[in-house]
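Predict the 3D structure for this chain.
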Amino acid sequence: MIDTKAMEDKWKKYWFNNNTFKFKKGIKNYTIDTPPPTVSGKMHVGHAFSYPQQDFIARYKRMKGYNVLYPWGFDDNGLPTERFVEKERRVTIDNTPLKDYIKICKEVSKEAEKDLYKAWYDTGLSADFKNYIDTSSDFSIKISQELFLDLVEKKRAYRDEAPYVTCPTCRTAISQIDMKDAVINTELVYINFNGIEIATTRPEMLGACVAIFVNPDDDRYRKFIGTEINVPIYDYPVKVMADNSINMEFGTGAEMLCTFGDQHDLELWKKYDLKARIILKNNRINDGNIIENLPIKDARKKIVDELINRNYVVKIEKIKHSVNTHERCGTPIEIGISKQWYIKDLDIKNELIDFGNRIEWIPEHMKTRYNNWVTGLKWDWCISRQRYFGVPFPVWYCNDCGEILFAEKEELPVDPRLDERKRKCEKCESENIVPETDVMDTWATSSLSPTLYLKHIGEMDIYTMDARFQGHDIITSWAFTTILRSYLHYGEIPWKKIVISGNVYDPFGQKMSKSKGNIVEPRVIIDNYGADALRYWASTTMQGENIKLREQDLMRGRKTIIKLENSLKLIMLLANNKKPEKAQPSFPVNRWIITKMEKTIKEVTEYMESNEIMKARIVLDKFFWNQYCDNYLEIIKNEASKEDRRNETLFTAFSVMENILKMYSPIMPFITEELYHEINPSSGSIGLEPYPEFDMKMMYEEEDEIDYIIGIIDIIRNLKSKMKLSMAAPLENIKIHGNSKLINKYDYILTGMMHIKGIEIINSDEDYIENQ
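Done. Predicted structure below.
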């Protein structure tokens, strides 16, 4: 049996050294916007599922005559990388100078990229790994800064002091893209507001209360609407107001609006143009009265104790409450007010939905997620991050007049935090200039992946790209931001098609996680089953659907590797290891298998063209296992020895086998490369060979006749199974009832293949066997 590891190592080295998959622009091009994985963790089985799906198409398109751009990149800047570096090197920005911190981040990223590159390459991806990009390089920073300045010129990027979402744990602003809902255990505190009882999960924000809201249809509070009541402890008046968004069933049906307890507070504050009372800054509360610069948790305890002491607390309930959290760390978000950079997008929702409609979504229903996200946008995209290892804003500020200074394009890339050049304000001529210390959201650079890939090879003229392959969990982040940036910069869609993959679950349908102990690393699967088996498993579900990691699918892939090898061994043995001369098919069995092959080529090609990989592979499996191996090869074991049809039969067996290998090649590149080179040693790569084309002229009328004979063979096989005989065991004499004309015509197939010494044929409308 073939040494899978040695075979894979051989062909990985061969492809790499020969630049087999390097892009060369031509008349027919196919371009892929590859998801650049982060460097902050290991490759996981979800990657091993989703990335081969784009490789299936990349390899298929090459064989269909396209010049395929399948680039590679790493997303190695931003908060995930900082966290990874701090864990690996035990450094923080608090104990490391900024310049050294950035240097360490780059060093660790490069080290991680080497290991990650190997992990992805081990799965057989045909990406151009030699020329990969990374988002922290000078090249990427320059482009990101250039396009930021482009947005400034177009008045699409702006700086504003406004409410923003912040993560207390990560100590940075985040955007709507970075949030997810979570249910937490908390307390609902009922407070007597001098006549109105309100219920709140944020009592620590009491000193920031600017209004009380009730539902206008709530009879309990109708008489209070428009009146003023005093805030407990703080003793200043706030107005009682009405809005239909207030849930009459939650708590008491009366809520205090604080600046800002949650997103609903912010929405009502904006809607009614209320004043702000800001007591929460830098994740600490200072109300100038009861709470002096305390962390949120401590502030909550202190104000509740004070309310209890003054008899304002009616009761406290333990509840489960839905909150917005930072998807990176799971911390409930807070809302503050400060100056941040934004990309303006709320005014172009219709245009963004139109762009989404111009892109083909596979599966189509995934477009609904994009549309719902765009429709539900509440804020412009905040791209400022109070972090350190990221793309710097090419911006300075005049400390005297507040003027914003932008870098010249010739200066890019530039890091204002480390730049020592003297600058002068053009407005007031002051030299009191300070740099912007924030960096850009990592999505602000990742969203430019089509531009980064195409500019890296100097081929922006082939923008728009053909396809983006990605998971459904980042439709609202990566897909949305890429479409947005493409619209703003170029007025064009970024790709013609977006193909969505699902998630991976364990055999019991549970999501994989470290805490559950059900994580399986791709390297373990490859070591046990081979990369081709892993890729075979990745082809066992439809696009957009979730998949279970089941051993039977991996075993099926492994068995297919072995079956392909053994099938070629058999026909090589029959041919005495010599490829036969070309011959036209005249023998009915050869014409039958060629007809079946042509039908398979047609069906597999149609499925591959529509990205229905699973359906294509199922059709191919059926042809290879059932028709070619179980029937055709078994038949020709006897027929190949007959001189009048030997060359024709062996040529047919070889040519069909070559086409089988070609059709399996996009899914199982290693074994098909190995076996194809055994047949054609001078071939450069099976991955560059023409994909089989359907030929109507190769459809023969003998198909139905041989199908009928195969049906009779199956009946005889069932008989042997019932008799507990092997398929090679001889049968003395049997009576065959059926179409006597066809059975007589092909009796040599039945006797030879099923080892029957004598048969009696009885014409009948019903097919069955009698064993004498």
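The CA atoms of residues 43 and 119 lie 7 Å apart.
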